[in-house]
Write the structure tokens for this entry.
Amino acid sequence: MQSPHLQLAKQIAGLFAAFPQVESIALAGSRGSGLATTDSASDIDLYVYTRDEIPLEARQSIVEQSGGASRADLNLNYWGPGDEWINAPTGIEVDIVYFDAAWMEEQITRVVEQHQACMGYTTCFWHTIRQSNIFFDPNNWLANLHKKCQVEYPETLRRNIIALNYPVLRGIIPSYAFQIEKAAKRRDLVSINHRVAALLASYFDILFALNRQLHPGEKRLVEFAVNHCKWIPSNMEADIASILQLTEADIPDLPTRVTHLLDQLDQLLVNEGLI
């Protein structure tokens, strides 16, 4: 028997499939990858790949046809186009993300074929496509893109990710570690939070590249690394916790904790001949 989440996802996907602007539809996120099939608190992440914009009125109609909403925030454009609502009959949160199909093709080509690195999260879209559960794909566009994503992790990309992200950890004057040290001296909590988040973004991009693992996104990174990475820095979980669970009294010790975290990563990179 299908879960309420899957039933609702398929119903909504069927409604979107009626629009000529829609190229493909996939269930993604934790449910698409099977990571949260028993987590009732998870939302539904539907990725709708389009060739043109779907009118807002049509999207509002989909909300109503799928049962209505106890709350809806449509036409969100803060992090890219999307709609979110709470399905009234089930209480399930629905998250619709709209991707321009041509744009997504470019992202996959840039990483998978051209081996271009980003400052953190380099292979996230590659991971998204590979983990997608395709619901609608009449022209096999998404199936073909999915096939392109089945290649082995390119060694050139692996080295490019490390080469781009490694210096900003602590190898240059405006490095994250140096900025964290200055923020700690000022006891600037907002700046500390901002720079630690950036440091961890590059840290995990390097770690996943080292292990030839695609980056899963922003959630459960420590858990994912422990479960999927062959090479993990010594005391990684404890080191990250010591940085993130900082108390007011711990602030002067923060640079030392960051140094220890990065020292363990360095050892892995040295062992692999990557630095």
About this structure: The longest strand covers residues 69-76. The chain has two domains: 4-148, 155-271. Confidence is low (pLDDT under 50) at residues 31-38. The CA atoms of residues 180 and 196 lie 7 Å apart.
